[in-house]
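Chapter review: from sequence to fold.
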Amino acid sequence: HRVDRRQRQMCIRDRDITADVANELVEVPSLLNAAYEGLRLPYQDQSRFWAAQEHTGDACLGPTRGPDWDDNGIWRSLHNHTWSPTHSFLSSTFSELLQVVFNTTNILQFEPTPQEEAEARFLRAFVMLSVVDGWGQVPFREAGANLLDNAKVLGPTEVVDFVISECNAIMGNLPDGPTHRANKDAAKVLMMKALLNKGAYENRGTPTFASGDMTTVMGLADDIINSGKYSVSANYFDNFAPNNDQISTENIFTGLNEGGASSGNVRSRWFCTLHYNQNPSGWNGFSTLSNFYDSFEADDMRRSSDYTGMTDVSGIKAGFLVGQQFDETGAALEDRGGNPLAFTPQVAIQESGGDLEVTGIRVIKYPIDYVSGDNADNDYVFYRYSDVWLMKAEAAMRNGDSGTALDMVNTLRTARGATTLGSIDADAMLAERGRELYWEGHRRTDLIRFGKFLDAWQEKPASGPERLLFPIPATSLASNPNLVQNPGY
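The token string follows.
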């Protein structure tokens, strides 16, 4: 029954709220918007899921530069795979992702419209796949479950099956867009990700690829490719620009950032790498590795390009910054000691000496927003068309159709200004995914799927098999006995 205003106020005062009262008071659109905003910290911050995906791989390094960026070795331990169960960034990421799972499940109790329900269920499935990717198990409650009971824990197969089932169930109620909301094509990409990685989640260290799953991946990709809604952007960096919501022809699912008003920490993508004497003055931290940089051809636009609105404002190019750096007038920049600001390919995980400010090739994936202040306008990119293109190529390769795979990879390479390949295999496919998707938060997942994550590379020795999963935080183990610590921790 409905209660009058006085009764409602008394319920609130006495903290004895019935389900009917809660349904009257709760505004589902506000809860849903908060769930979208809840993606910002765990995905956009430089220390959260992005760090877990990129700093653990072969294309990103967070070197200690003298006294700077030491942080008790927290960055070094990611790159050289020596993290422990008390690693604060990994623990925070696990908790913050699960908070989104809880919040989206909570929405389902308050009579959302069919579209609101579909959006909440998509966000929940999206985050659950991230959690199983990193930690191999996901605490989960159904909507309305007793919060006093310990959440059950789903394993890899259960999570993948759940994601596929959810996406199929909600597809008809998801909108076609915009890209910063859950939409039909985003759900198709999520299913592609789940199926392509299913055998890697179930068999860490020896990934398998079921032919039927690969066929489904290709079919989902064809739905997106044949829709005519997307194309490879003429300018690669338009996909990440401050106005990417208007000019990108590739973006499928993004995190909304409102310039000058409200955003996540997307600005960290340039602050974390720029030198103090560049514009803007950066934090002089992260770099890429020379072997990864050397995998690009000189004319590949993904390697380095002038970008209008950035290069003409500050002299900074999009892509990789190596060698002498200049301002917008062409004047050579200096480091804080008055030496040439010339970034070197050489970089060590612990730097010392007079050149520690300039070691390492810097990376600018998101063109800088010079207008919006700390609340940058660049929408954060989760899924885009070229990833769909490469996932279809990979699925074709794994099903024995190397011809289709090669043609698709070469079509993308031609669009990026690179020469065509003569053949394709797993190593070449992984390398192309690296060149196309660097610093977008996919590298660890790709390295594991291709069986390369435990290899030695620059500034990293070979790793033990326990590193294929992150440790479950001690606080989470203590609060839910259904969780089990991953092997080796």
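Two observations follow directly from the output. The CA atoms of residues 157 and 202 lie 6 Å apart. The longest helix spans residues 114-135.
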